[in-house]
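OP here, attaching both records as promised.
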Amino acid sequence: MMQPVQTGAALLRDIETTQPAPGEVALWWLGQSGYAIKTASLLLYMDLYLSEHLTAKYAQTDKPHIRMTAAPLRGGDITHAGYLFASHKHSDHLDPGTLPDLFRASPQARLILPLALVEHATALGLARERLIPTRGDETLTLGSLTVHSLPAAHPDFDFAAATGYPFLSFVLVVDGITLYHSGDTLAYDGLAERLRPFAPDIAFLPINGSDARRHALHVPPNMSATDAVRLAQQAGIRLTIPHHYDMFTFNTVDVADFTRPAAAAGIGYQVLQVGERFVWRKPG
């Protein structure tokens, strides 16, 4: 099993003491699609999966979720969380083994999530008054943070009139920096056109794609590595960071499947190691 660059108290201390300057953002990949994101004014956590919930759930099935990378933290270790995001219901994005413990450890934390998942979240023990739901195709203003919630296709939109889109991506605008966190989504027709007006500085994109084996196991597909490169080109993204690989042995790809075409296409990209701090400064 691969080990994170930093873990536990050392990683938390690094997150807490790093202070980005205006125009900078500090990033820590926490595995799968999970990140800590820190700007001059805010610390955000995205799509955390910090438990062994899925390994236990699927141990005796035809798709055992065997971890490839150890969790750098547990939810109960995080006492400083403010805004959290969960893009959809799947447990590697809205984790029953992470979020209840994190909510207890960080009593000020609030979770932005699809409106369609509010009942699911409260059933996990997350207090309704600490949830910030969005239907998708909405804009939320939370102090210095502006959140644009966009539909995601995983693999379909599954829109419902009462609750909106159950799968979301997020465009985050904070301290002059614009970030796109995809959650899980296909590179559907029109996505690049949706993103281009936001001029994302950084996009976090899945690269695990799909294949016949995973389709037979009913694993929802994501955009592939080549899809991610194409989207970065079409949407004019400054820097692309790949995710959704090196977590489970049955549903991963070699990150070189992304870096080779990205380098050939001349797009800006950065491959992170779990637990590593990466600081990016906006040009100009």
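Record two, same layout:
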Amino acid sequence: MGHSRDRTLLLILLLLVIVDVAVASYAVLEAPIPVRVTLGTPMAYKNIYIHVPIAISTYVVFTGALISSILYLRSGDKRYEVLADSYVKYGIMFGAATLVTGSAWASESWGAPWNWDPKQTAVLLLFLSYLAYFPLKSSIPDPDRAGRVGAAYAIAAFVMIPISFLASRVLESLHPTGEAIAEFAGGGPGGILLGMRILLLASIAALAPILHARGGIRVPRIIPLAILLVGIAIAGYTYYPAVTGDSARVVNATTTSEGKITSITLSSGETIGFDRPVEPPISPPLTRDGQSTLIGHIVRIDGDNIEILYHWSTPFTFIVYTILLSASLHLLGGRR
């Protein structure tokens, strides 16, 4: 009966992973972006569909560690201690991915990968708090006492979750507020994609540690490998144009009243004029105040063709996401 339930849970997990990879791939390739951003290219905001679900899933995993630790202290059942260990282990992986993908995005949209932003710093402290969990337990010779101390520590470390969540709300932060994200993504295809990604990845993050704690559940190696190959393929497809020719950032553009491009000024200082107005490569062509939405984008120009390019942070973030999923599946059979 137990093996049958494990197989069912594993099939559910694999189905969630397959659907999530498909949705994440579509989001990176086709999801909407802001019309204009304060710094960097709007294309970097494709990262919202990858980084934000990873960050929220980190909270979900550590919440699982909290609940498991409370149940262990109340019941003394060692299965809850093992489950708490699994949740912390996965939480450390998700926390590391949150920091890495957030820093990659910040490098473009904030001007530097690390800014000691309140939320960025709080997430680092959250990660470091749980990173001490296993060294603490292993330093205590008595297994029963180690379990109780570890559970108490996991409960205490959870205080960093609300602190990191509220940091950008109560302190001045570079992080976009929930209202800003909702204004951009809510009510349209962007909001649907972001909501799906959060639900799917959070479900994966909640289920994988349960299977890991049960032990002996192995995933065919072809599945983690296939996920990695998808990550490499999507990253290569999106970033290849940026490394195969000259590119520059648009700092100004003149347009017709319909938004067609008559000339653009690049970050290199070069101004390129077009004999005939060129159709803009992005929609909408103009902001509400009549400015070209091409400003800020990284582009490559070939004659009258203007090609918008991805910033490196998006393909990098997608690869980190697929590594995270692959590692999560590979880890399932790692506990004896």
